[in-house]
Amino acid sequence: MIIRSVSALVLASPLLWLLLAGPSLYLVPLVVLVAMLLAYEWHKLCGPFSLYHFLWLLFGVLLILSSWIPGLGVTIQAETHTLTRVAWLPLSGLCSLVLLIFFAEGVLRYRAGQWVLEEVGRRFFGVLYCTLPLALLLEIRHAEQGEWLVFFLLLTIWATDIGALFAGRRWGKRKLAPHVSAGKTWVGSLGGVVLASATGGTVACLCSLPYDWLDATLLGAVLSVVGQMGDLAESLAKREANVKDSGQLIPGHGGVLDRLDSLLFAAPVYYLFLWMHALIPTSP
After folding, report:
1. What is the pTM for the complete model shown?
2. SS3 282
């Protein structure tokens, strides 16, 4: 527990500064690095490591994120450290292009008796799983009050973990999904939802977010449920891979995917909420 707490503090402090107050210029390389680490851990969960297949997965990840790479899809104003996204291809077009390239590669190397289509599907899913939520998080960060919008999302995810841990250990008995995750209980899940909901309403009031406390309270509950679904989904992947953690990069926590599984599910839902409320600017 001590190692887990120390590593969390060491990592959380600079990341929070970068997300909330740091120059936007530094966010793109951070997201690219995290996406590459996620892709590596996802590839290991899918079976024995293959450099050839991993490089194709990495190619798809970088292609999806290329609309944020300076010189291709990003205009950087160095004097103010601001960043404006101008996508050189729509995101849907990039995803379709990646799928077509993966299919073409599979067709060229197919031989009778091989399961090429299954590999193509796992690879393409991994690309979307490891990149799209992070790309949407960048969109949120560059909206008006973007730093506080991201702060709201992070706090609801953390509140879910804390509430679920406390309620589950104190009162939890009935398992939520015993065949996927032996430690999660229904009471713990409810505790996470309650604390995330209360946290959402409180943060919206204190930070003057562009939606009222009632919307924020309900949104906190929704993000908590979705985040827990993301946690269970990653637990399922680890269960099928017969591993305890997705990696060993973070002492006491496991891999990057272990820490971001909830965020990867919650970020797209949060983005859709902001988009429906016209709080996300459209790219020129």
Report:
1. 0.85
2. coil
